[in-house]
Specification:
By secondary structure, the chain is of the alpha+beta class. It is built from 18 helices and 24 strands. It is globular and about 90 Å long.
Amino acid sequence: MRALKQGEIKMSVYRSHTCGELSAANAGSEIRLSGWVHRVRDHGGVLFIDLRDHYGITQVIADSDSPAFAGLEKLRAETVIRIDGKVKLRDASLVNPKLPTGEIEIYATDMEVLGPSDDLPLPVFGDQDYPEETRLAYRFLDLRRESLHNNIMLRSKVVRSIRNRMWDQGFTEFQTPIITASSPEGARDFLVPSRLHPGKFYALPQAPQQFKQLIMVAGFDKYFQIAPCFRDEDPRADRSPTDFYQLDLEMSFVEQEDVFAAIQPVIQGLFEEFGNGRRVDAEWPRIPYAESMLKYGSDKPDLRNPIEMQIVSDHFRDSGFAIFAKLLEQEGTEVRAIPAPTGGSRKFADRMNAFAQQQGLPGMGYIFWRKAEDGSTEAAGPIAKALGAEKTEAIRVQLGLGEGDAAFFLGGKPENFEAVAGRARNEIGRELGLTDESQFKFAWIIDFPMYEKGDDGKIDFSHNPFSMPQGGMDALSGDPLDIKGYQYDLACNGYELISGAIRNHSPEIMFKAFELAGYGHDEVEKRFGGMVKAFRYGAPPHGGCAAGIDRIVMLLADELNIRQVIMFPMNQRAEDLMMGAPSEPTNEQMRELRLRSLPKE
């Protein structure tokens, strides 16, 4: 093998450097690059080609004297080529400070087409808005676009950082099974038919819940994994309809605050590292679920918005505003106010009333305060006229409002209007510029109700069924709807990032807890026999949580759609348009599994 001369660059078959590597220090060097033709510009006999690879973009030039000119002028966008050439300094006026390679360009002396490209179904250059169905069908092209490429790289860095931080916190990484038994985690399972056991089905895990608890029973003190989870769910902008990844962790001999103390440095450090300078609030308040629903209309409140709702029922009871007065005669009803500092104009009030109607409500009452002719502050609007000066003044004082401010009102049974009230609070905060979007604000939502009543009147688990009820066995003798669990969520900027609990490690308490939700002793033994058996052989108190990685990256990337941070996502109908999934099985596959497909109804 020939020895390299001093200053000579070693050439591989395809490249001596990447497209993000060359600088002024390489001026005069003979180099070789390979990549995709990002953009071609013809300036009257001089070609300028932006050559792109994973690492960056380098400008290549060729004039009519270049041996590569004839080949280069025929190129289509996204053709993969190899370029040989010489590094030249750009004129000072032509330096591109936005590119790491902006000080130089490559004068092409030779080229080879490595992978020709057909006409593109969507452009890669630029960030044009294209139909999502086209983007997903050609995801391999979509991933070449700079913003999406950067999102996927951010995701990879976030996962690496999570792993490092978890190891530094004393956790050990283990992998749990992907093919397992069905488990009630709050969503539909993806079932997998068994060929060896006809008529029986495995399930893809909605979460590694039972296995991570068994890891604690087995004596491994602190576990974590970057776990794939599978749920057959209806899609939302912040949720994948089929599969997602979570940071899953569990700890032995811990209480709720121990879990909080272990995970906060990981999440806080992550947002400090990748938050692009946005402030990361280090104070994570503990907000009981009931308080969160009252003040914010949500169990994942956006605390960047300072607005807090309040109950104002007493001001409307037996008042001249007949709609609310009559409503409050019914049991379980109340009236809540949403303060709107600086929102005191009829135009804004009408806009928010229209917003409530778009959300399916008849409307949203309001009062706004303005300066009266005598210089005092007066209340205005239909509700103000009906209530009178004394009651409207009492409302203003309670809410801490003044001239130029407004308040909006919703009434009825809280479960019927809370969600809309929460959305209205968010809308008011955004519209009035009250929401500070330059920061991340976290809060632990605690004291979740253990049970809820369904539309059919039956009692069921409202959260994780394996949680320890507060008060243990004694708590299970009262009204199930009054029982709270050691369950907690971490909210950030209006999203749920983490969900977890201190686990129920007592078989007796577990049987009783499931009994209240309609699961008999035999059914619990059948469905969770492995865990119940394990708990009879010395189970430590334990707890943990899981953090949604896709949602974390979505927040860090400042995206509103979770598909923007997943490499190969499904569309909103849970279809993979690129690979053609789901697909119909062959007759042979169905015979092997002893299955028959029913016709569509």
